[in-house]
UniProtKB/TrEMBL annotation:
UniProt organism field: Hyphodiscus hymeniophilus
Protein name per Swiss-Prot or TrEMBL: HotDog ACOT-type domain-containing protein
SUPFAM superfamilies: Thioesterase/thiol ester dehydrase-isomerase
Top-level taxon of the source organism: Eukaryota
Top-level taxonomy: Eukaryota, Fungi, Dikarya, Ascomycota, Pezizomycotina
Listed GO MF terms: fatty acyl-CoA hydrolase activity
PROSITE patterns per the UniProt record, alphabetical: HOTDOG_ACOT
Alphabetized PANTHER family for the sequence: ACYL-COA THIOESTERASE (PTHR12655), ACYL-COENZYME A THIOESTERASE 9, MITOCHONDRIAL (PTHR12655:SF0)
GO-annotated cellular components: mitochondrion
Sorted UniProt keywords: Hydrolase, Repeat, Transit peptide
Gene Ontology BP term (one): acyl-CoA metabolic process
Assigned protein family: Belongs to the acyl coenzyme A hydrolase family.
């Protein structure tokens, strides 16, 4: 041991005497500032923003947005769970809640994403083509919907995303710029659910309001409030519109609510196809028989794809980095991002083109997704507005000549990591519409596929009259 102790100083001395050129030392300095990574939900103020007032406002609102997602470090919550030290939530029946009517201004929230000013923030939103990832914007919108909802209900209830009623891309974004995300509750009658309306726009100059021509995207989420202890729906404050514009928004929300109820009653799980739909299914089936009959000249066109050939799948383990404020469930915005990017890939694989996002059609969340579970997602082209049958569905053609609107349906389910028998649960169905610069037709073959086709066709009929996208003629710009 004594010999070793005498050797160590000589080795250390020899190491210290090694001459290292100053030029090489400089090259080891990779960065003089720490990159900020936020995975979409922006939570830090960038020091590059010069306006002190802007920075203060952005910091407060963006921190509020992130607070909707996480409040406790996961390791702390995990250890408390392991040691049975988690405090049970209080039921809303244990105290008096304020259910007086509220105005839309009470829940209004606005945040700025300084994407043009902060390249490190933009790094979290950019894709390989230099475009803004819409899936990451969808994450932010879901988080913002939660912030808005809790402003209306207060923290005494648990509020979850029940459905995304629509997300519509109104105009293309020609160049990367700062974005303003804003929203408020626009419909609530005092029951458990509320409609939260959001929009994404080019950020206006300080002191100015957003112009209509700068609105890029509009959205509507249905949020539901639950008792934290029993997980049963609870009443919330009704909404009281105060201005003619608010009355209009409230009536639109009421109309949307009634349309959803009517559509639910007519769902194919509850009602058989109507006569016109039954005739269409039969005609498609007869056409397929002709495709395989050597005695007929009819053959499947090259641009007609069997629905089964468009199916792609994704499997992910749900990690705590995407948990919600309740610590052990996955944030709904992460599901939106994941399903959108799978749907985008499905549309591009089927069309061999780069799709333009048009809308997220009515989509539902069914069961929560626990941290640690395995999420399975399956994307399928369920319908296109290029008719497979000659003369059929000509009135539904919404795309321009030489283009096709494609509906991609993404079904998701979860299993536990052990994949036990009977542990599969559906978590939601998400319906995306894209436009591609190619004529694409879809051919269902099985009864299940025919039902998917009819369901998507019904959705296309409802959406065609309400979606007006100016950008479909010019592409989606720098958002995809």
């Amino acid at each position: 041991m004594e010999k070793a102790s005498r050797t160590l100083p000589r080795l250390t001395s020899r190491f210290r005497c090694s001459a290292v050129p100053r030029r090489i030392l400089r090259s080891r300095c990779f960065s003089t500032s720490t990159p900020r990574r936020t995975d979409g939900v922006y939570q830090e103020h960038s020091p590059n923003i010069s306006s002190r007032h802007f920075a203060r406002l952005s910091t407060l609102l963006l921190l509020e947005l992130t607070a909707m997602r996480t409040r406790t470090p996961f390791i702390k919550a995990f250890r408390a769970q392991q040691e049975n030290k988690i405090t049970p939530p209080k039921s809303t029946e244990e105290f008096q809640r304020d259910l007086t009517p509220k105005s839309m201004s009470d829940s209004f929230t606005r945040i700025i994403l300084p994407l043009a000013r902060d390249p490190w923030l933009l790094d979290s939103y950019i894709n390989s083509s230099g475009h803004i990832r819409l899936g990451t914007i969808f994450m932010d919108l879901d988080a913002l919907a939660g912030v808005v909802a809790y402003k209306h209900t207060g923290d005494s209830v648990m509020t979850v995303t029940a459905a995304v009623d629509r997300i519509t891309l109104k105009r293309p974004l020609s160049a990367i710029c700062d974005l303003e995300l804003s929203g408020k509750v626009t419909f609530a009658t005092g029951r458990s659910s509320m409609e939260v309306s959001l929009q994404v726009a080019k950020a206006p100059a300080d002191g100015n309001d957003v112009r209509e021509e700068d609105v890029l995207m509009t959205c509507a989420f249905t949020m539901v409030s639950l008792d934290p202890a029993t997980k049963k729906p609870v009443a919330i404050s009704p909404l009281k519109p105060n201005t003619p514009e608010e009355v209009k928004l409230f009536k639109e929300g009421e109309q949307n609510y009634n349309l959803k109820k009517a559509a639910s009653k007519m769902a194919l799980r509850k009602q058989t196809p109507n006569d016109e739909e039954s005739d269409l299914i039969h005609a498609l089936w007869l056409q397929q028989l002709d495709y395989h009959d050597p005695n007929t000249a009819s053959r499947k066109p090259e641009n007609a794809l069997y629905m089964s050939s468009t199916k792609i799948q994704s499997v992910q383990i749900m990690q705590p980095q995407y948990r919600n404020r309740h610590n052990f469930m996955i944030f709904g915005g992460f599901l939106l991002k994941s399903t959108f990017e799978l749907a985008f890939t499905c549309a591009s694989a089927a069309s061999h083109t780069r799709p333009t996002f048009i809308a997220l059609d009515p989509s539902t969340f069914e069961n929560p997704v626990p941290v640690g579970s395995v999420l399975y997602m399956t994307a399928t082209v369920a319908y296109t507005d290029s008719p497979t049958l000659s003369g059929a569905d000509g009135d539904l053609k919404a795309s321009t000549e030489g283009s096709t609107r494609i509906q991609v349906r993404v079904d998701s389910k979860i299993r536990n990591i052990e994949h036990g028998i009977g542990e599969t649960k559906p978590t939601g169905q998400f319906n995306y519409t894209f436009e591609v610069k190619r004529d694409v037709k879809i051919v269902p073959q099985t009864y299940d596929q025919f039902m998917m086709y009819l369901d998507a066709r019904r959705r296309a009929r409802r959406v065609a009259s309400s979606v007006g996208f100016e950008g479909s003629k010019h592409g989606g710009g720098v958002m995809e």
